[in-house]
Write a structure and sequence with these properties.
The chain is an alpha/beta fold. It is 34% helix and 13% strand. The protein has one domain. A 5-stranded mixed sheet has the order 4-3-1-7-9, with helices on both faces. A two-stranded antiparallel ribbon has the order 2-5. This is DUF6884 domain-containing protein.
């Protein structure tokens, strides 16, 4: 892994769009969406946030952009839902509007309110502490992989740029995105012909990322949604390369072939005067 590749894997957060096809029961968010398109995005996200093999590690993480929930963490249990961006677009908020969007417009529709939820969740997610002595956000790069309906709704409202303002007090609310974070939108930055073109690009990038991280996999930590997982050492019984049942059965088979003379034992008991009985 080159110095440039290493630097790019430090402080990387990946946000991927959800999908229409879902399971029919509550599961972890990473398993809720069942389409091949989402699966490819998830594989890319998991590969992109692996630890860099450096002494000065910085946290990496990935999440899911949802029309119903805003931002979901991969291990968060979620029930199936049917909400789409179009369902929110022209639906007014009940009651008085309390916020100006970062774009300067009033938050008056459900889509506006959703955008504010995403902004607040982004601020919390990108700043949450990964170390006790960490004061600044670890995020250096935010990669957003979602359809234009999601991205346009957020960018038009300034969600990746400014801060919402409370109408009554005139004060800015919620923390803006980390100042050192670069926001990228690969789907919008490249001239893709469609979903399958995106999937091919993602698959190629995933292979490159996995190949770059391969030398470090046995000794380095991998961060998914802020949690840490270490691959099992080769000597651990839980390692996928060990056939535990087969090993146990082989031991039993070998035991059964031991000559009987080695299995016989002499049982004795002691009397009170010390003589064998």
């Amino acid at each position: 892994m080159t110095a440039t590749q290493t630097e790019r894997t430090r402080g990387r957060f990946v946000l991927i769009g959800c999908g229409d096809a879902k399971t029919d029961q509550p599961v972890a968010a990473r398993d809720l969406y069942t389409s091949s398109y989402f699966s490819v995005k998830r594989s890319y996200a998991e590969a992109a946030v692996q630890w860099a093999r450096t002494a000065g590690r910085r946290a990496n993480s990935w999440g899911i952009l949802s029309a119903e929930h805003g931002i979901l963490m991969p291990r968060q249990t979620v029930a199936p839902y049917d909400t789409t961006i179009e369902d929110l677009r022209d639906e007014p908020i009940e009651g008085e509007s309390h916020y100006w969007l970062p774009s300067g417009e009033r938050a008056e529709s459900r889509l506006d309110r959703w955008a504010l939820r995403v902004h607040s969740a982004l601020a919390d997610w990108l700043r949450r502490p990964y170390a006790a002595d960490q004061k600044d956000s670890p995020c250096r790069e935010l990669v957003v992989l979602a359809g234009s309906d999601y991205i346009d709704a957020l960018r038009e409202r300034g969600i990746f740029d400014g801060r919402p303002t409370a109408i009554r007090t005139g004060r800015e609310t919620h923390t803006a995105l980390p100042p050192k974070a670069t926001v990228r939108f690969p789907f919008q930055e490249r001239d893709f012909d469609g979903m399958f073109d995106q999937m091919e690009w993602l698959s190629d990038r995933t292979e490159e990322l996995e190949a770059a991280a391969k030398p470090a996999r046995r000794t380095e930590l991998t961060a998914f949604d802020g949690g840490f997982e270490r691959e099992s050492a080769t000597w651990q019984a839980s390692h996928s390369g060990v056939d535990v049942e087969g090993t146990e059965q082989a031991g039993l088979d070998a035991f059964e072939t031991v000559p009987e003379r080695f299995l016989a034992t002499r049982q004795t008991s002691l009397t009170t005067d010390g003589e064998e009985e």
